[in-house]
Amino acid sequence: MDTPNLCNKINEMIGFIKPFLPLVNCHLVNFITDNLFDKLIPKEIKEEVVAMKTDELKLLFLNNFKHCNNECRVSQLGTYFLKTKMMSLSHNGGCISLEKLKQILSNKSQDDFKSLPFQGFMSLKKGHEVEIMCALTTFIANNFKYSHIVDIGGGKGYLSSMLALEHNLKVLSIDSSIVNNQGAIKRTKKLEKAWKSIKNKFPQEDKGKNNIYEPIQSISLKQVTTFVNETTDLIQIVQRQYPHDTCDKVMMVGLHTCGTLSPSSLKLFVNNSKHINSLINVGCCYHLLEEEFEEVSKHWTREEIGVESFGFPMSNYLQEIKFSLGRNARMLAAQSIQRIANEKESNLDLLFHRVLLEEFLKSKMGYTSLCRFRVG
């Protein structure tokens, strides 16, 4: 999509979401105490919702309005839902499915796009994420001959360990927490001990290129404790850890780069483009980003918060129009609607006690705005 069309699409999205931003950014308890249902919900949709039973309405949402059409008695709500889908990145060519990505990559190389399924040391969800991330990283690293992988925000070391263990890649895991890195080292040693038996559970063709069990801790996998921002000299750190290697083609990866670390990784990639030619970044915790044009609470100033750089917006166009999204909107953007629909349940019940706690703290501390008031 060229720049003019992209700007037009962004304007279309902004025009759609802007009237709903007060609703999107409200706290769950404010929706009740401030009577936002009457104030912000369009009349036609409100009438349809009131006429339905709670379980019936919930089922419609969880089924993604699949059986809703013009004759449906929630046609206005269904129409709104369809409009939101029209604004999604997937509908507008902003993202592709995993299967489509596999197909594109398979057309460029005969290498397999796969990694060993691995459970036991991590949750089912984490294992799924690491497996896909590991397969994609390895495919790109091998086909484009990257010498080293830098895992930004390595955390517990699941991804970096699997890249080194299964695929013999040289991986530098960077995390700002010494506790995380110490835990990652211990966890890697446990993985090494279990690795030979894990590999033997799978056919020879599924074991990848790492068919000989070797300790990896001092050979290919390194851990570094340091804080990373957009000015960090990554190549210098890599060369310090691998003094005998030529580090002229490095790949960056990040699985769950939390909050500001995600935009910092993007800026870091651009600033080091001479030697870092590829980036795979999966961000999370968007509510922890700092917005440049977000309203600042009267209780805190930017100086008190200690904002060094802003994670949103990164787009020059959105900066020009000084667009602000809001913390709750960013938090909702990180929620998986598909997972909620597949599990056929919502988490509103789980939020109830958090709502009570937040209201209690607000009443005791005298806050009238939740712009900078955070619990958890």
From TrEMBL:
> Which superkingdom is the protein from?
Eukaryota
Pfam families with a match to the protein in the record:
Methyltransf_32
Signal sequence bounds = none
Occurrences of domain Methyltransferase (ranges):
125-291
Which InterPro entries did the record assign?
A: Methyltranfer_dom, METTL25, SAM-dependent_MTases_sf
State what protein this is by name: Methyltransferase domain-containing protein
